[in-house]
UniProtKB/TrEMBL annotation:
InterPro entries found in the cross-reference section: AAA+_ATPase, ABC_transporter-like_ATP-bd, ABC_transporter-like_CS, ACT-like_dom_sf, MetN_ABC, MetN_ABC_transporter-like, NIL_domain, P-loop_NTPase
Name of the protein described by the UniProt record: ATP-binding cassette domain-containing protein
Keywords: Amino-acid transport, ATP-binding, Cell membrane, Membrane, Nucleotide-binding, Translocase, Transport
Keyword set includes Nucleotide-binding: yes
């Protein structure tokens, strides 16, 4: 639904060039909620602003719903007619809401419809529907200053939906909100995604947002996307920084001649008593060194760091058992010089073999 190819953005300011986007290939599928996460300055806002041509990319292409936006004339407020039409089908929600304080809630929602030339009556009907949808049916005549942050963002969302977009872009929409309000706004985005089939591309610096609402995610660093995939794919990718950030596990081995593994549970495996089966089947004592369990997009997932007695070679069969249960298993390499890490151990869970093994 949204594809960027080799997208770059270089800002020229004060005689200096600053590369904010450095060859970004993004692919957001129709109907998914896709999160781009990264630290401040990573280029997230530049990316989202290039997707709807608020900023014109320096090079590369942006396709939204099959249309090449980079081929259309203009940018920002000087967009040509075709670009304006295309942009009206892309809703945008901002961190600081960007509501007009002199207009009522209803008039704020009607604004994009005025620009599109809808009649007064059609605008009023549509705005009423949208305000109902975001839970603000009774606030139509209020002014933004009379609303809480969460309510303002709901107005922002209603306004973004006015053009009946297929795509909603959200730049840190919940970053100015407290955790409880964040949750309710994310729930609203989720329900819009489900009920309207809206594709959502959201930008955030908060891992919790990704965990709560996203189907897929990408990690952005210094203008580049360094990892991307569905949350399941990321969880199944050994050494994924995103997976580790979503489910941080830690824990030190208790001594030499121990095997430490990180086990990732998702899908069915999350609800089965796999660890106790392992213990009973092989009659071994298992220590749990660390664990992180959570619900991601409505499903239980988690990671557990466990320790088995004996060196890696002695645990090939139990580890095979875990993989047969559909679990992702990564060996935690002991510190160099640790005698427990035998010569025949696998080469530190190098990506591909692990993934293939896990898929068996
Ligand atoms: N209009 C601009 N002019 C010059 N530099 C900019 C402009 N907008 C963003 N930048 C720079 O581009 C980099 C990426 O910024 P941004 O896309 O806002 O990142 P993020 O949203 O991830 O914090 C930063 O170094 C920022 O200072
Ligand atoms: Mg930003």
């Amino acid at each position: 639904m949204i594809t960027t190819q080799d997208l770059t953005k270089v800002y020229r300011s004060g005689g200096r060039d600053l590369t904010a986007l450095d060859g970004v290939d993004l692919h957001v599928r129709e109907g998914e909620v896709f999160g781009v996460i990264g630290q401040s300055g990573a280029g997230k806002s530049s990316l989202i602003r290039c997707v709807n041509m608020l900023e014109r990319p320096t090079s590369g292409t942006v396709l939204v719903d099959g249309q090449d936006l980079t081929a259309l004339q203009g940018r920002g407020s000087r967009a040509g007619r075709e670009l304006r039409a295309a942009r009206s089908r892309i809703g945008m929600v901002f961190q600081h809401f960007n509501l007009l304080s002199s207009r009522t809630v209803r008039d704020n929602v009607e604004l994009p419809l005025e620009i599109l030339g809808h009649s007064r009556r059609a605008r009023a009907t549509k705005a009423g529907e949208l305000l109902e949808r975001v839970g603000l049916g009774d606030k139509a005549n209020a002014y933004p200053a009379q609303l809480s942050g969460g309510q303002k963002q709901r107005v922002g969302i209603a306004r973004a939906l006015a053009g009946e977009p297929k795509v909603l872009l959200s730049d840190e929409a919940t970053s100015a909100l407290d955790p409880e309000t964040t949750r309710s706004v994310l729930e609203l985005l989720r329900s819009l995604n489900r009920e309207l089939g809206l594709t959502v591309l959201l930008i955030t610096h908060e891992m919790d947002v990704v965990k709560t609402v996203c189907d897929s995610a990408a990690l952005m660093e210094k203008g580049r996307i360094t990892e991307s995939g569905t949350l399941d794919e990321l969880l199944a990718t050994p050494h994924s920084a995103l997976a580790a950030a979503l489910f941080p596990v830690s824990g030190e081995r208790s001594g030499p001649a121990r095997t430490v593994i990180d086990v990732t549970f998702h899908g069915d495996s999350a609800s089965r008593p796999v660890i106790s089966q392992l213990s009973r089947t092989y009659n071994i004592d298992i220590s749990i060194l660390g664990a992180a369990m959570d619900t991601v997009a409505g499903r239980q997932v988690g990671r557990m760091r466990i320790e088995l007695p004996g060196r890696y070679e002695e645990n090939v069969v139990p580890i095979g058992f875990l993989r047969e249960q559909g679990l992702q298993v990564e060996t935690v390499r002991p510190e160099a010089g640790d005698a427990s890490f035998g010569k025949s151990a696998p080469p530190a869970t190098s990506g591909k073999t692990e993934k293939q093994e896990a898929g068996r």
